[in-house]
């Protein structure tokens, strides 16, 4: 044994070939924590001191290779400042360069995920062989940083600047065939053949058939591009990536600049350029929030995983109510492999649901994600029916009929009598109380909410709503099914609007008051889109549908009359009364025309402005900052109230629900991180100033005032 650590071993075989194996104890994956990086340095030193070694294989004993750096350390590390970040990068560069400079040929055997720092480890070796099911990539830009352990230096020199930019700026996970095509790896084999393939490459290198030293010279020298080629590659890429990334995500463009600046330099100077840019990005709010987002996502997944372990198997499901929503649910279930019955009382509704599912599968075929045969196979997982004939074998039912408590009650009580006693019933309701819907059920413990967001195939969130009598088993089964559908389930407690809609409607309330006081709704949209929302409030209302918004607002007003009930008529109600429902009938705050792809395209409509005038009471001008405050404060306050009322268990779940459910700007981290970033005391002061004019919707809670006084935050700065 050449080296033995907690995560790394180095051993030599009879032919003097050493294997450095990553196998982090007590973990299911390999990751590069600071402790593991230190071990790697010790292992490389041991290799440098070993005699008679003729080659090195870097491998993993786990199902993954290395998933990347330990992201849980990032906030703490980055909080130490630029000097400490530079010191960390210098340490890693020293270790990785030492691997690259070993006096014998080296190869990495990539058996599973090799991401971020894990991918950068593979780039240090002369050769790479990859399992056919493995994936490789540099996703750092998704965390607001760039590859800082040599990825921006080595990858362009191995695969060319254009390919490297695509991988790094896009943050993609790439399959083995794609990696082989651009030369990121030298061979693709089955995992069973990896070790033999790696040893074969080393043998050929030692015989002189493969020139490993030439490989090193390419990686450590300047990038081979003349000035004209450089200009064409980098300037074209910057324009394209800037359009894709948008103004709020600087890392992808910064990564291209780093590759460009380092193109004419040797390894050491190019790495120094990379390190300086990494440290600059690591200290930005965007990076802090995107790392926080990753950590929050891990919290949500861990909680869901615990439920999943307790769940009874969900092998056969059913959706009640076809149409667009039912068809979307059926498609999602079928596409992920859970057979589903799709029941309705009308043949045309069934056909509409099947049409929706066929359309979505058809798009998968067009994008070469599925073959026609695979589409047919997955479609067969959806069984349309007008009767309850096979419901005795169903494990879980999703009721997705019209948003009317009487209709839902009738359907749920009917189906309860036809399913097995252990079957779970769920309601895809967006607003109706789960406790209310459970009142007439014989087994309320088997019932909970399962709120999908529209369009089902795109929106990642599912709210799992626990009623007063809902059992842990019902919640666990529903969470497990949502996960099986590829969704992110977040468990919340029952209240009007649950979590996401309860938080969204104060935002719409802020919008209504702005319009009432003379704000141009199109200008409000532009300001909020510039702030980072995918669409402004007027546009979002058109997408949601004015009828849905009016109904949901009535539920909120009844539940929270002190702050959500309004005496005056709103612009939303005026649109509804004048049958301007939004995209449902091509007219709302905007008019809608079909674009070249057949999708609705919004255009300004004078008729909408004429109607809005009915509710305008003032002619007031608002700055962009005032608009942002008027829109964001009520949304953030309601998120705080949901946390205080135990509707949602943790800040992490609250923020992730808003990001996944309504498109809260990810780079801002969520409503509670937004308050933390502003400072709780500053937020309370802002809210108090607005509440004096606008009323209880803007009034901070007593607990929030206490937090402001004591200097508390929702998140630990190092978490």
Automatic annotation (TrEMBL):
Pathway: Lipid metabolism; fatty acid beta-oxidation. Its EC number is 4.2.1.17. Pfam families: 3HCDH, 3HCDH_N, ECH_1. It comes from the Bacteria. PROSITE patterns: 3HCDH, ENOYL_COA_HYDRATASE. Keywords: Fatty acid metabolism, Isomerase, Lipid degradation, Lipid metabolism, Lyase, Multifunctional enzyme, NAD, Oxidoreductase. It catalyses: a (3S)-3-hydroxyacyl-CoA + NAD(+) = a 3-oxoacyl-CoA + NADH + H(+). Residues 497-592 form the 3-hydroxyacyl-CoA dehydrogenase C-terminal domain. Gene3D superfamilies: 1.10.1040.50, 2-enoyl-CoA Hydratase, Chain A, domain 1, NAD(P)-binding Rossmann-like Domain. Residues 317-495 form the 3-hydroxyacyl-CoA dehydrogenase NAD binding domain. Belongs to the enoyl-CoA hydratase/isomerase family. This is enoyl-CoA hydratase.
């Amino acid at each position: 044994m050449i080296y033995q650590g907690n995560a790394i071993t180095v051993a030599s075989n009879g032919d003097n070939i050493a294997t450095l194996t990553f196998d982090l104890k007590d973990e299911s994956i390999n990751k590069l924590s600071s402790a593991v990086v230190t071990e790697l340095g010790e292992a490389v030193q041991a290799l440098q001191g070993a005699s008679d070694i003729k080659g090195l294989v870097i491998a993993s004993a786990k199902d993954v290779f290395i998933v990347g750096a330990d992201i849980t350390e990032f906030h703490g590390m980055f909080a130490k400042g630029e000097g400490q970040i530079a010191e960390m990068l210098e340490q890693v560069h020293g270790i990785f360069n030492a691997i690259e400079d070993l006096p014998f040929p080296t190869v990495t055997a990539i058996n599973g995920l090799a991401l971020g720092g894990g991918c950068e480890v593979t780039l240090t070796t002369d050769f790479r062989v990859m399992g056919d099911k493995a994936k490789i990539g540099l996703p750092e830009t998704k965390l607001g940083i760039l590859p800082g352990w040599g990825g921006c230096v080595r990858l362009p020199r191995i695969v060319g600047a254009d390919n490297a930019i695509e991988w790094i700026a896009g943050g993609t996970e790439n399959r083995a065939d794609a990696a082989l095509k651009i030369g990121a790896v030298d061979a693709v084999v089955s995992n069973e053949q990896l070790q033999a393939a790696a040893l074969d490459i080393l043998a050929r290198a030692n015989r002189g058939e493969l020139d490993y030293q030439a490989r090193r010279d390419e990686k450590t020298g300047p990038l081979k591009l003349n000035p004209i080629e450089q200009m064409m590659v980098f300037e074209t890429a910057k324009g394209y990536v800037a359009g894709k990334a948008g103004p709020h995500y600087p890392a992808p463009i910064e990564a291209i600049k780093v590759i460009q600046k380092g193109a004419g330099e040797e390894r050491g100077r190019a790495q120094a350029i990379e390190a300086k840019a990494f440290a600059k990005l690591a200290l930005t709010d965007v990076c802090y929030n995107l790392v926080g987002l990753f950590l929050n996502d891990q919290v949500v997944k861990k909680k869901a995983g615990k439920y999943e372990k307790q769940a009874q198997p969900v092998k056969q499901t059913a959706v009640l109510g076809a149409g667009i929503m039912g068809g979307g649910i059926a498609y999602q279930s079928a596409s992920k492999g859970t057979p589903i019955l799709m029941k309705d009382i009308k043949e045309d509704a069934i056909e509409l649901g099947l049409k929706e599912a066929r359309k979505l599968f058809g798009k998968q075929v067009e994008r070469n994600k599925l073959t026609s045969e695979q589409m047919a196979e997955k479609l067969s997982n959806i069984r349309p029916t007008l009767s309850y004939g096979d419901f005795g074998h169903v494990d879980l039912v999703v009721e997705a009929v019209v948003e009317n408590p009487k209709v839902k009650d009738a359907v749920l009580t009917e189906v309860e009598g036809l399913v097995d006693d252990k079957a779970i019933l769920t309601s895809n309701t967006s607003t109706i109380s789960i406790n209310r819907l459970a009142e007439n059920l014989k087994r309320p413990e088997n019932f909970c909410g399962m709120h999908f967001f529209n369009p089902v195939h795109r929106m990642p969130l599912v709210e799992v709503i626990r009623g007063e009598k809902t059992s842990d088993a019902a919640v666990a089964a529903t969470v497990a099914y949502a996960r099986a559908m590829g969704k992110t389930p977040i468990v919340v407690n029952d209240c009007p609007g649950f979590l996401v809609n309860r938080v969204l409607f104060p935002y719409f309330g802020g919008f209504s008051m702005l319009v009432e006081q003379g704000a141009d709704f199109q200008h409000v949209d532009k300001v909020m889109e510039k702030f980072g929302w995918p669409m402004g409030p007027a546009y979002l209302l058109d997408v949601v549908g004015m009828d849905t918004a009016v109904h949901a607002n009535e539920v909120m007003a009844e539940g929270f009359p002190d702050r959500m009930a309004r005496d005056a008529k709103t612009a939303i109600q005026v649109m509804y009364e004048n049958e301007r429902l939004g995209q449902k009938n091509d007219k709302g705050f905007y008019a809608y025309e079909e674009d070249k792809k057949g999708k609705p395209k919004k255009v300004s409509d004078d008729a909408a402005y004429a109607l809005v005038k009915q509710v305008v009471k003032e002619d007031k001008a608002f700055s962009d900052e005032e608009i942002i405050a008027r829109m964001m404060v009520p949304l953030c306050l309601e998120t705080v109230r949901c946390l205080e009322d135990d509707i949602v268990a943790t800040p992490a779940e609250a923020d992730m629900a808003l990001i996944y459910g309504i498109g809260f700007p990810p780079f801002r981290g969520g409503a509670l991180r937004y308050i933390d970033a502003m400072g709780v005391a500053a937020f309370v002061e802002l809210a108090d100033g607005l509440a004096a004019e606008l009323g209880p919707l803007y009034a901070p809670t007593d607990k929030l005032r206490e937090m402001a006084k004591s200097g508390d935050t929702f998140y630990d700065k190092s978490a």
